[in-house]
Structure formats: C-alpha cells, structure tokens
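Suppose a classmate hands you a notebook page containing two proteins, each written out with its sequence and a corresponding row of structure tokens. How would you begin to make sense of it? This section walks through that situation. The first entry is reproduced here exactly as it would appear on such a page.
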Amino acid sequence: MFTKMRLVKDRFLAIEPYINGKDVLDIGCVDARQGGVRKYKSTGLHIFLKEHASFLLGVDTDEGGITAMKNEGYNVTSADAENLNLGRRFDTVVAGELIEHLSNPGLFLESVKGHLNDGGTLI
C-alpha cells in the first residue's frame, strides 16, 4: 500500500527552518558539474545557507574550489566528508548532492554524528 507523500518543490523552503539562526556545516560546498566542469565558486545552496545561518562553515575536498571560495570571502576549508575532524559541533549539517559521490556512506554518517549537537539535524 502506498501512502501519500508531500512533494518538495523548493528545497530552500524545506531547509530554511533547520538553518535559520543556527550553526551550520555545509559538506560538499564547491560547485562541480558533470563532465568535470567546475565553477569554483559557491553553489546557490551555499549562498542560501550563508544568508540564513548565524554561522556557516563549508567543507569540500576540491582544493581549487576551496581556494576560489576563500578568495570570494567564504568561510570554507578542505576536509573529507567520510573522515571529518573539525573540532566543533553544529546545529545542522547540510550535505546536498553529496551522498552519491561517497565511497562509504556509513563512514560519512558516523563522521557527521560526531559533528552534530544533541538534537541536531542532518539534511
């Protein structure tokens, strides 16, 4: 039997209550496109998070993208999503368009768990 599910047409509207005024970690913040094209700047998601979070840290393994984003004034650092050690916790962790790129999603989830405040949210 199928249950009726709510269709999310705008992910920003769905995410906003979880990031408004909160400390947020954005994992996979560099905009990389299929075919190897990289814009080396923040994605629309990261810009949205920056506009609503009280504190935002972006992480990615793309060194060139991280450098470009730092040059644009973003608070970002290079880190591996499956092996994070950032030395702090967050109210919300956002990992948009990331999980399909991981070699070990279980390690990723364990890593995120260690960076979430009690009652925190993974999106």
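The notebook's second entry, a different protein, reads as follows.
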Amino acid sequence: MSRGPIKAAGGVVWRLATDDDGAKVEVAIIHRPRYDDWSIPKGKLAPGESLIEGALREVHEETGYRVQPGRPLGEVRYLKKSGGAAREKVVHYWAMRAVGGKFSPGQEVDELRWLPIAEAHEFVTRATDREVLEHFSRRPPLTGSVLLVRHASAGSRSKWEGDDALRPLDEDGEEQAEELVRLLSRFGVDAIVSADYVRCVDSVRPLSEALGVPVAEEPLLSERGFPGREEEAVELVRSLGSPGGAVVVCSQTGVIPELVERLAADADVDLDGDLSVKKGGVWALSFYDHKLVGAEAFPPPKMSGQ
C-alpha cells in the first residue's frame, strides 16, 4: 500500500537590523551537521499536529526564537530518498518575525546566521529554500493579520426555537472555543471583534479571558447586519489589518465566504476552491497597507476523542 507524502513545515524567520546604512531585513539560516547543509528552519509534523503548530514548534526547536507568524509562503515539494526508496515530501512555510529568544547550538543545529536576504539566498544549500526566500522577498515582511473565525459548533439552527442570535454553543463548540486559544494566541492578538450573536461572542470568549483583551461586538459582521452593507464590512476588515498587529474577527457562514472573496478580488489575490470553513475554522488574512497580500484557511482544532 502506497503511503502519502511526508508532511513538514517551517518558516522564514526575520528581524530588522540597523547599521550605518539604516534598517534592513535579515533572515535566519541554520547549519545542520547531519546533512552538512545550510537551510531554512523546518521539520516533520508530529502525529496529530497541524501545519502551523508544527512550523512554530520546529522553528523554536531549531532556532531558539519565539516568532509571530505572518503571511503564508506556500509549499515546496520534492522526493525524499531513504533506504533505496523515494517518497514525496511537502513542506509548508510562513513568514515569521522573531520577537524574542536566543539560539543555542545542539546536535541537530550547530550554527545559526542572520544574513540579508540576498546573501541568504546564495548561502542556503537547496534550490527549494531559495524558492521560498524569493517568495518572501516579493512582499514587505511586516504584515498585519486578521484571523477570521467561523463560530464554533452551536447545534442545529432548525431545532432552535428562539431568536437565532441567542443560540449558544453546544458542548463541542465550547471545547472548540477553548482549543482555538492555542492557535490564535500565537499571532500576538491585540484586539478581538465579533458579530453580535451569542455563539460568535462565546467562540472567542476563552481567548479574550486568556489574553485579557475585551471582545468588541460588531453587528455588521452578522448574517443580519452584513447584507446590503457588504462594502462597509470589507472596509472594516481592511482597517483592522495594521502592520505588525493581529486582530481576531468572529463571524458566520453567511458572511465569511463573500467577505473573503471581495477582499481577494479587490487585491487580485488568487484563492482556490471553496471559501467557506467548517465551524471553528479560521481564515488567516495578511494585509499590507490595508490591502490583502495573502490568505489561507486553517481547519477547526482537533478535539478530544478525534
């Protein structure tokens, strides 16, 4: 029986450095003695680990730095040869701003260098790493993140007899809301906005309590407030995408796909496939100068028993 591809993830870790010529972007590249190569930090996912969680873990393990994820940098594919056989490996990357920490050499990584992008491009060993660095260099490194969350599980709309705006999360939804804290908090969230529906507010309440950031309710983001005011909602989300910041926005399935589609169309960003996400899923939208420059969908967090 054929096995699927090896899944891995990593990031282009960057910082601003100042010299006589002013501020410039530097990226971290690492030396791996096992392969005697210079590489962008990356590694295989642990069982049950999501791509973004695996990327953040691997980057921290290999560099020692805490990072804030930014725009997605796509994926690279290549054949990994082992024991006379070859298997496809797929590696997903993000731009990641270093926000703290320190490198310590170890068995897997014995040296780290901070280099300007052009020098790093020439220094890395693999052509696939050069592709990722080229992708990173095409856009400004510092972007703003809007994490557009579809509310967590809230039972059946048809079985709820009261005002739909008052329908609460069910037990699964409460667990999803708790699990979302781990993912969303990694982005350095400084504001939380929610449609004025109970299930939307409650989906981000655990995050609010964990971070000490209040939830601002916004009727424009609900299925009642959105129709006829679509462009206002688009402008609202654009305004939240300030460079270096991250804002969580919780909304509904009757809003999110059209909102993402309008933002992408205005910025000529190509999005493939279905723009909806399952309950508890997240669209991570990256902005520069209040214009969409990247977007990717994260699946709902895995819950106990899955």
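A careful reader of the second entry would note: Residues 171-185 form the longest helix (15 residues).
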